[in-house]
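[agent] plan:
  1. take the single chain provided in the ticket
  2. run structure prediction with default settings
  3. attach structure tokens to the ticket
  4. add a short note for the reviewer (M.T.)
[agent] executing step 1
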Amino acid sequence: MKASDRNKLTESQAKVLKTITDFIAENGFSPTAKEISEILHITQTSVFEQLSRLEKKRYITRQKGAARTIGIISQPENENPVKKISSVKLVKVPVLGTIAAGVPIFADENMESEILVDESSIGKGSFFALRVRGDSMINAGIMNGDLVIIRRQPLAENGDIIAALIDCDATLKRLSLSNGEVFLLPENEKYSPINVTCRDDFRILGKMVTTVTVM
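[agent] step 2 finished; step 3 output follows
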């Protein structure tokens, strides 16, 4: 078998490569495995498998343990070349523990580890990451086990998804400001809103800017 034959793409691999190419062209940075799975309506396991094969065939490059670092090396024959990601700046984001997306649990400010994130995907600021536990934000595409990147800020706007502290417990919810009342809203009908209007033990830790699937 010729080397060129070995490097030919299957239909599934071609779809994943095109999805990556189109996403980079539109957003300026690469998609996560979760975003690819949602676009193509396939499992993340399948995405990881196709990414691994594309990498072995030298169509893409990835950096292990870092989010949004898929780079396009080459395209199939008869395809227009895509502009590669240039000047990717990776920033270290500390992982501080677990945050509840269900019942609030204590979030310890001790750093567990660090992840590398493309700065272009999160912008400027001071960031930390927390691991989601629970299913109260699934309708917002935030699943149990996801890492969420939080920009540290004491204030947020109506509709923002925030990390909030309530009586030393951290939780991830959507902020609702209406008629002088403040609620933390889940994105799952199984859970009820939390009224924090008059609570002295409530404060905003920061705003969620993205989720990360660590490979």
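[agent] step 4 note for reviewer: The CA atoms of residues 94 and 114 lie 4 Å apart.
[agent] ticket updated
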